[in-house]
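Supplementary notes for students who missed Thursday's class. We covered one full example, reproduced here. Read the sequence, then the structure, then the short commentary at the end.
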Amino acid sequence: MNPFTPFTSDHEIAAIASGLLDRTLPKPHWTHAAHFASTLWLLSERPELDLPRELPTIIRAYNEATGIANTDHSGYHHTITLASIRAARSFLAASLHPPLFLTCNALLASSLGASRWLLSYWSRERLFSPEARRAWLDPDLQNLPF
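Structure (token representation):
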């Protein structure tokens, strides 16, 4: 199991997503777990959003509001965002846990809970390249399973 503090309510998940959307989430709370929590919430509670198209803008605006520059070496990362949306969407579709916080906890307890999960699919050089930050780059080690 990956070390993380499990969520205890859907309210916690909603508060993270709301804080991302309105740019009030304190920067130290924007963790790997918070990324997945907000993505799961947006997928389940805001299905009208086209996340692959709209989440990049949401994250860039959040970063700017919290003093993080979106550059070729920091801030928003397009390949990681799109891969994470795919992973969260797949996990949510397969979930048998009705409360969202339980689904999020199960996702974070899985291999996806490790912040290095993408390095099973992309080499470090490719994943952390400026090109991967700017646009989707296909994995170079193995295909994503979702």
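Commentary. The chain has a mean pLDDT of 95. Residues 78-94 form the longest helix (17 residues). If anything here is unclear, bring it to office hours.
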